[in-house]
């Protein structure tokens, strides 16, 4: 992966940050990476709303839970309407699954991975972008949105078949979500100048994200997890590296930047950074949403 070193980023100790009063929403903050972010940010004083299905952090005073099944776009719209967008400083989007061996479709007719890992984020961001942070008393930075995916990896979307209706493969379907999230960042950076939007590529983090990949074949899953374990880090380790970046003043006005799992800036995928390709992915997304 090529690196853009133009952003001078100094690592800081996440435990010495003063995040008192910072208002954060983590869509996908109930598990894995999002949960570690929520715990670290809350520990440093931020007020965090986590959106997801299963809440496990009742014991942490400044984490509040909003339940939602984000395989439904109606639910995504409800979440967008109910989030306190006007007072938020930071939105982090980590909701995700991986497509399974057989195409799964949600009630609204969308392939399940695309719906949860990409489309729900698109729907939420589009609905809240203009309200984000507008009612904050003393803003310490422009409102920020971080979109987690696999940016910079060169993956392309099949814009003719974003919903995998004509042909299905689990990796092909998942790559539509990867490319979609990268396009979401690049498009939002141009479309919403009043906020800063960034992409995050976590590399390989030890979470349950791959559980659906092989269906009921748990043996294959554990073999793959075992073989790749040398490449994976714990979500707590990744979060500790990234939390200082999320609130760094260095990011001000750098909307559209993407970061790897060491909090270093990376270049976007050339195929997606091309304005017409970003536009094609967004157009295909709008067409799909128009059918729901
Ligand atoms: N882990 C990696 O190696 C890796 C690598 C590259 C990219 N990523 C990306 O990083 C992001 C976070 O992944 P992760 O590894 O932290 O995954 P994870 O541990 O499986 O967590 C996924 C999160 O998404 C939520 N979620 C899943 N289905 C949902 C639904 N139907 N409705 C609402 N929430 C739902 C989960 O909430 P509940 O548990 O409450 O359902 C959980 O909070 C994803 O976008 C993933 O693609 C991860």
UniProtKB/TrEMBL annotation:
It comes from Aliirhizobium smilacinae. Pfam families: adh_short. One of its GO terms (molecular function) is oxidoreductase activity. The keyword Oxidoreductase applies. Keywords: Oxidoreductase. This is SDR family NAD(P)-dependent oxidoreductase. InterPro entries: NAD(P)-bd_dom_sf, SDR_fam, Sec_Metab_Biosynth_Oxidored. The keyword Metal-binding does not apply.
């Amino acid at each position: 992966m090529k690196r853009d070193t133009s952003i001078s980023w100094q690592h800081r100790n996440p435990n010495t940050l003063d995040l008192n009063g910072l208002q954060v929403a983590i869509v996908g903050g109930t598990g894995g990476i999002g949960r570690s972010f929520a715990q670290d940010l809350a520990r440093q004083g931020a007020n965090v709303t986590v959106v997801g299905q299963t809440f496990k952090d009742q014991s942490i005073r400044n984490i509040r839970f909003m339940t939602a099944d984000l395989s439904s776009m109606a639910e995504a719209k409800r979440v967008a309407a109910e989030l306190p967008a006007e007072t938020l400083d930071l939105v982090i989007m980590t909701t995700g699954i991986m497509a399974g061996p057989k195409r799964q479709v949600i009630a609204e007719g969308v392939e399940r991975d695309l719906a949860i890992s990409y489309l729900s984020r698109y729907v939420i961001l589009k609905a809240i972008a203009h309200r984000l942070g507008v009612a904050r008393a003393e803003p310490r930075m422009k409102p920020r949105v971080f979109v987690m995916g696999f940016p910079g990896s060169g993956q392309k979307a099949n814009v003719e078949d974003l919903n995998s209706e004509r042909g299905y493969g689990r990796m092909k379907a998942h790559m539509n979500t990867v490319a979609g999230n990268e396009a979401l960042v690049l498009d939002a950076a141009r479309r919403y100048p009043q906020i800063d939007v960034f992409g995050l590529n976590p590399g390989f983090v030890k979470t349950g994200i791959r559980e659906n990949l092989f269906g009921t074949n748990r043996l294959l899953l554990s073999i793959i997890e075992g073989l790749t374990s040398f490449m994976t880090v714990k979500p707590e380790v990744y979060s500790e590296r990234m939390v200082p970046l999320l609130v760094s003043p260095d990011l001000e006005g750098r909307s559209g930047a993407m970061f790897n799992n060491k909090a270093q800036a990376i270049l976007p995928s050339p195929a997606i950074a091309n304005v017409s390709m970003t536009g094609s992915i967004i157009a295909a997304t709008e067409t799909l949403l128009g059918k729901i």
